[in-house]
Write a structure and sequence with these properties.
The complex is a heterodimer of chains A (about 110) and B (about 120). Chain A contains no helices and eleven strands. Chain A is mostly beta strands and about 110 residues long. The N and C termini of chain A lie far apart (about 30 Å). The mean pLDDT of chain A is about 90. In chain B, about 0% of the residues lie in helices and about 55% in strands. In chain B, the strands form three sheets. In chain B, strands 2, 5, 6, 10, 11 and 12 form a six-stranded mixed β-sheet that branches. Classes of the chains: A mainly beta (about 110), B mainly beta (about 120). Chains A and B meet through strand 4, strand 5, strand 9 and strand 10 of A and strand 5, strand 6, strand 10 and strand 11 of B.
Chain lengths: ~110, ~120
């Protein structure tokens, strides 16, 4: 168990809909990262939050947004969903700084858009 | 930009044998970190091993070791005494650091199948 909790584990929704994915980081970790894993794009970094503030942005679509709350949990909002948004979405958390600050991943949310 | 290359889409190994999964990287940074993750069929990403660019010794974690050749920019994962439970996707990743914070850049992965 990595200590990172993601809900829900599976999500099936229709095109055009909006969904929210939730992530609770490991206790004490201030950084939360969102990744998307799809068959054609592989594992791609979407966005990072640190202690409530956006720190880095990757290949995140404008239809997607995220936030980190004061209790450090994070939500990834996906709107106007398309078939191509079907993927496994991971949340990861890490401590601050350099060294062996590996990112611990949650179990992922498998999103299927039909 | 940093890049990770895993040239082996799939590897087969017999139980109890050792296997090496290749990973090469490209970066202009002097300070970086290299990671290996395992993704079983259930989907979760499991951290295996880490190597820092300034670490003088190759990292080891149980049956996992990292053959780090800095001049060649390679960070191959060696799994000794393979077990059936090692069958999974394996991803090499690099920590890309900007202003002290980090994100991971992943390779395309290698699917390992361990046969009895």
């Amino acid at each position: 168990d990595s200590g990172v909790t993601q809900t829900p584990k599976h999500l099936i929704t229709a095109t055009g809909q909006r969904v929210t994915l939730r992530c609770s980081p490991r206790s004490g970790d201030l950084s939360v990262y969102w990744y998307q894993q799809s068959l054609d794009q592989g594992l791609q970094f979407l966005i990072q939050y640190y202690n409530g503030e956006e720190r880095a942005k990757g290949n995140i679509l404008e239809r997607f947004s995220a936030q980190q709350f004061p209790d450090l949990h994070s939500e990834l909002n996906l709107s106007s969903l398309e078939l191509g948004d079907s993927a496994l979405y991971f949340c990861a958390s890490s401590g601050e700084g350099g060294g062996k600050t590996e990112a611990f991943f949650g179990q992922g949310t498998r999103l299927t858009v039909v | 930009a940093q890049k990770i290359t895993q040239t082996q889409p799939g590897m087969f190994v017999q139980e109890k044998e050792a296997v090496t999964l290749d990973c090469t990287y490209d970066t202009s940074d002097q300070s970086y970190g290299l990671f290996w993750y395992k993704q079983p069929s259930s989907g979760e990403m499991i951290f295996l091993i880490y190597q820092g660019s300034y670490d003088e010794q190759n990292a080891t974690e149980g049956r996992y070791s990292l053959n780090f050749q800095k001049a060649r920019k390679s960070a191959n994962l060696v799994i000794s005494a393979s077990q059936l439970g090692d069958s999974a996707m394996y991803f090499c990743a690099m920590r890309e650091t900007h202003t002290g914070f980090q994100k991971l850049v992943f390779g395309t992965g290698t699917r390992l199948l361990v046969s009895p």
